[in-house]
Known about the structure:
Blueprint: H1 3-23, H2 26-46, H3 54-87
Amino acid sequence: MSPEQLFGRFDRLLEEERAAIRRLDGGRVHDIAAEKADLFLEIRENIRGRSDLALRFGELAAGLRRNAVLLAHARDCLRDVLSAFHDGSPATPYAPAVASSGLSVRG
């Protein structure tokens, strides 16, 4: 695949990941993470010495940051729901969530 095709595939994965986050589909989010890791390595190999793709790479990084923020918000919401379910109070900010009920953010 050409670098442009690889970037396009990555963009589609980011869109699919956002949809999976909205659906709270942890299994699909997990699968996409593995696909993104593999694709990122392939992109990295194919853009060596291609300064003309720096802007496109920056756009990809921005998309990754957007999805990371969505994932963080989803994680925090689930943590608070689980905490409220277990003891009636929301978890403190930045505290790790413990899901003793067997529920998992990953699916």
